[in-house]
Design goal:
73% helix, 3 helices, mainly alpha
Length: 82
């Protein structure tokens, strides 16, 4: 993917905390990952809104099934130390 340099202003304390974790060369990669994740969450939110508009909100039964599946997935990751 092509890259282009932009200027972004961050609170100094926040930037210093991130730099302490990722090192001086890691800030761009860190910010890129954060922005990508936020975009994914925004698109997922749009999908949820569309789905609820088309089909209505999930039932209590559907919510319970989703919560159970999420617990199973979390357990799978925990068992593998991930």
């Amino acid at each position: 993917m092509a890259t282009k340099k932009y200027t972004v202003t961050l609170p100094e304390e926040l930037a210093e905390e991130i730099l302490a974790e990722v090192g001086p060369g890691g800030l761009s990669a860190y910010v890129t990952r954060v922005v990508e994740r936020r975009r994914e969450q925004d698109r997922l939110g749009e999908l949820v809104a569309w789905t609820e508009k088309e089909y209505g909100p999930p039932t209590e039964e559907e919510q319970a099934a989703s919560a159970a599946e999420l617990r199973d997935i979390e357990r799978w990751f925990e068992e593998r130390g991930l």
